[in-house]
Amino acid sequence: MPPNMMTESWANICRQCVTVVADVPASILLVTLLATLLGLFVLFFLFLFIVAPTPREPLPEEKKYRTLAKDGAITSPEPLPCWLDALDAHKTAATPPQIEPAELFMSVVVPAYNEEDRLAGMLEEAVNYLEHMYGTLGRADENDIKPGPVSTRSMRKRKPASNGQANDGPATGSASDRGWEIILVSDGSTDRTEEVAFNFAKDHQLSLHPKGYAGPWTPKAQEGVHIPPGTIRVVNLTHNRGKGGAVTHGMRHARGRYVVFADADGASKFEDLGKLVTACQEVEDAGGRGVAVGSRAHMVGSEAVVKRSKLRNFLMHSFHMILWLMTPPRTATVKDTQCGFKLFSRNSLPSIIPYMHSEGWIFDVEMLMLAEFAHIPVAEVPVGWREVGGSKLNVLRDSIGMAWGLAVLRAAWSLGIYRQT
Question: Given this model, what pLDDT does residue 175 score?
């Protein structure tokens, strides 16, 4: 058939279609349009319901931890304290449930998947700071203080300390103005991650002059610091859950008045933890709720960023644009949502952790969204950061995955598939 005849044939068909449609009453056309849109919405909702991630329940063995006894022996698995289980148990009570009081000042959650090569350096920098700031070094006169849980509500009205320490001085005699713990969550690791952690803890616990390890911020190894027994707890997840799942699991079992999660590579400068504590104390609301997020936004244009590949920088800026378009107003103003260095006050955890769904790289954004939904103040704090080799992030694949995860996450919360109930 010649082209001109084919064109004329299609034109006739189109004219006939227009004539038929024109003869249909407007009310029927409107009903048809609405039914089509409704059908598409239902199909989209069902699709979203299927693809929206649902976190798996922890296995019984994953709710236990191992640590070192005073003699340096690895303990048998012991039950992890869980403030969330205790909170759920009291929901039927007449009075509103409250999170259990803190037992110490700082809990550090470290998600680790096959980190045998990078973990020791990070732990060295962490315990050195934690023991000097929140431990027993330089505070021998407080050793006679008897431990005991203390409510966080009495702490929040004090003037924030400039160095990230507890606002309560030694005269208070409270246990949660001192003390720290590291909860290492081995996310289904198949290498020597747990062995490295136990060896590190054993050396620093038994020896008065522990061997030091070089880290990203301490290139030259120096003598380590002596740490108290049981300060490093190792939790093993039987099956890999992803970074978000490991962080959430660890934060369910934190005992600190403040809880921070930090990447196992030590890329964030751990000494900047004091900045996060101070910022969190400054923004805490009347309920003692506050969040402080480490930020690398001040490094844009620095040598560390400029030296990255053009693809990586392009994907970074594209992801920031997607975040700005798809997240709630306050979350969209956070310049760096993905820095693995975020601190939460204990009283903020019940509004965030029980409602987490994302277990992948995008979990940081969900935490900030939940904080916004619960009207929890968030402070963004510039922190030191260095590129550390050995990253398991595939820039192209994981960037696409994060964009997809963010779209699903935002839609699921907007359409009521996820709820804070």
Answer: 55
Q: 105-124: per-residue pLDDT in tens? A: 999 999 999 999 999 999 99
Confidence of residue 146 (pLDDT cuts 50, 70, 90): very low
Query: Which amino acid would we find at residue 370?
Result: L
Q: Could you report how far apart the first and last alpha carbons of the chain are, in Å?
A: 65
**Rounded distance between C-alpha atoms, residue 259 and residue 264, angstroms:** 16
Strand partners, 343: 260, 292
Please, are residues 253 and 241 in contact by the beta-carbon 8 Å criterion?
no
> How many other C-beta atoms can be found within 10 angstroms of the C-beta atom of residue 293?
26
Residue span(s) of the chain under CATH 3.90.550.10 come to 60-414
- Can you tell me the distance from the alpha carbon of 378 to that of 284, in angstroms, rounded to the nearest whole number? 9
Q: CATH topology for 60-414?
A: Spore Coat Polysaccharide Biosynthesis Protein SpsA; Chain A (3.90.550)
CA–CA dist 373, 370 (Å, integer): 5
The span from the CA of 284 to the CA of 345, in Å, is 8
DSSP β-ladder status, 291-295 and 256-262: unpaired
Calpha distance 341→393 (Å, rounded)? 17
What pTM, to 2 d.p., does this model score? Answer: 0.84
SS (H, E, C) 341-389: EEEEEHHHHHHCHHHCCCCCCCHHHHHHHHHHHCCCCEEEEECCECCCC
